[in-house]
Amino acid sequence: MKKKIGVYICHCGGNISDYVDVEKVRKAVEKEEGVFLAKTTMFACADSNQKEMVEDIKENQLDGVVVASCSPKLHLLTFRAAVERAGMNKYNYVHANIREQVSWAHSDNKAGATEKAVKVVKAAIAKVRYAHSLEPVKVEAVNAVAVIGAGVAGMRAAIEFAEAGTDVYLIEREHFVGGRVSQWDNLCTTEETGKELVTRLYDEVMKLDKVTLFTGAEVIENSGSVGNFTLKVKITPRYIKKHCNKGQLQKAIEVCPVVVPDEFNFNITNRKAIYHNYPSEYPHLPVIDIKNCTRCGACEAVCESIDFSQKAETLTLRVGSILLATGFDPYEPKKGEFGYGEIDNVVTFPQFKRIVHICDKELIYKDKKIKNVAYIYCVGSRQVDGENKYCSRYCCTSVIHTANTVKKKYNEVYNYHFTRGIRTYGKQELIYEESCKNGDIYLQSFEYDPPKVEKKGDKTIVTIEDVLTGKKELSVEADLVVLVTGMVPRKDNSIGNLLKIPRGRDKFFNEIHMKLRPVETVIDGVTIAGASQGPKNIMESMNSALSAASKSFSLISSGELDLEPTIATVDTTLCEWCGKCAEACPFDAFEKVEIDGKTVAKVNPAVCKGCGMCLPVCPSNALNLVGLSDEEVESMIDVLLTHD
Amino acid sequence: MDREKVSAAPKILVFSTEKISDPAIDMAGLLKLHYPPTVYTIPVPCSSAIKSRWILHALEQGFDGVFIAADGTDCPYGESCTEKTGEIVRKTMEQMKEKGIDPARLKMAAICSVCSEPFVKHIKSFSAYLSESAKKQP
After folding, report:
1. Residues of chain A positioned with their CB less than 8 A from the CB of B25
2. pLDDT by residue (tens digit) across B64-86?
3. Contact assessment for residue A216 and residue A287, using Cβ atoms and an 8 Å cutoff
4. A536 in helix, strand or coil?
5. E strands, chain B, where?
6. How far is the CA of B107 from the CAs of A55, A375, B64, B104, B110, in angstroms?
7. Cβ neighbours for A408, distance < 8 A, ≥ 6 positions apart
8. CB within 8 A of A491, min separation 6: which ones?
9. Which of residues 40-69 of B touch A (CB under 8 A)?
10. Closest Cα of chain B to A243: distance in Å?
């Protein structure tokens, strides 16, 4: 029990003291058991007050401190650091929020706010009485990271790590780098092509000795925790020798009899079983799609570089931190959604971009020259009844930019945009302006009354009740209907499941807090970047990649990590191993051990996240959280019920 | 509101979560969305960490109601949180019944990090229920 507690009650320059009688609070708490001194202060967070706190602690040998001020989200760490400067263990500090949850919340009731402030401060005093001096859990940090996903975000992050001196394992599931961006042609707003951007990043990555790139690689096992993860990575072979004859390889592609839909072109074209997506793709070596290969031997007959004897390998990597940049999938419309899959000239926006890329002088689809293109926006985004309630944010800009490209490339094409309101935010608005000047037609409907796509004879008609013209019914005979599909999370969430990364309501990876900790996950040492955490354009993906890289780097660069000691503890005298804690723990932090012939639960402090999910399931109440023990919680409850 | 009225309002203990519902309750203050000052918060890391004995202790010692501001599907510790918190509430309500405590004095709602208005709405309606319920007591 603490006997010399210092209490500081903040005016917050009037934010608190305008509604809470801080002097009354001070008087109410100064006689509390264990309170040695109680002061009010104009700004608790000010340097002058922090210095005073440090002096008070040193001079009076205080053993506990409470500051009653703003939300701990803002200044918990400030005051923990201050008490540490005075030589006190920082876990003997308790923060009481009397601003957001008292003075501001009850600014209509000063008496009530003051009464509540007294109890909140008393509860903090009750808690600090039972506080223990704790030491952060120290773990070694391996100065290496795994960046999962070699799209633009992953490659950008890898460069950042390597330049800072960290070893990087860049792990890409596909056999080629670049992700979705390599599928796009000229990009908004630079007009650089996706391939050029990927090439620049790849060249940069290859210059850096610190980066080791694995393609065709998948993380299949994960163990350990922040500072020291062990990953098992399965590398699938290309079945082509590293040093090969390029002429022979080209011939091998030509003679391959297997023809399958080309996913790189969103299935609008076909490819062979031995392939690369485009000639300048990185790494340059083609790959044999072993799932579709019939092993007919035609390629082997013309190319000495084919090597079917190559076997999958499994590598073990030790890293201190993991950065996930696994990207997104384009929304796949349901069969019949705006005619998709039923009307033959209805395509998705990614397919359309590949069509525009492939077609040179004339825009042709299924042997028919395209004159009128109808773009239907928000397909798979902003769904009223569907799962994807969110706006995918990139699509308005991207489709208008593509429409402008179409107009430049094939000047006889007319663009008709069936929208629910245009969101070309920021500088991207200029693209919208350009489109309007090009003569593109914009029509708009509400979310509950989307446009209709119908086949009438050999014609495809798109009809809308256009709100911009007072709900007039307008129709366009479209040669091609483009469904502007948004971003959805990757269908394959195996890496998310493996690393236990929570997903949000939108099913993308969830950050701890979208504003305060935007690239960190609840799994210490695992950061997220790019479109894996939600729809983003390329610039935003790069920004988040740099942010995630710097956050991960700051964790591991010192070689040692301090972890919060607020973890679960087991009272082995009460524990009668039943395994319920292990079942409840989502992080596998419990193990069964023998202590003096008794089977009990043991917590792995480096793995336990301090969530407390194990506490209520223990039938013998053998579990507590450090800082949230029964005596701490129940004493706070008792104090909150006291009458002055 | 004078001092007597403050004390007469139902006392509600809120178990709130540090990462999810606490920011919403903080923001309710920032937005000056008022609720009764007899509502007190104890932060926990996750709503599925709340022990039944804490809830029962609060009710038996004098709180009129306990409100669990649950993480819901936003829980950063995992998707099982909603189910686990629901199970805690179910079990606690059973224990409340056995002890002759009205189970409606325990209320749970998912409060996301920006759910300031829903939080205040829940608290006000819960407070009103507890007041009405107290009046009906013999």
Report:
1. 100-101, 105
2. 999 999 988 778 787 789 999 99
3. yes
4. coil
5. 12-17, 39-44, 65-70, 106-110
6. 45, 48, 11, 7, 10
7. none
8. A329
9. 40-42, 44-46, 48-54, 57-58, 61-63
10. 47
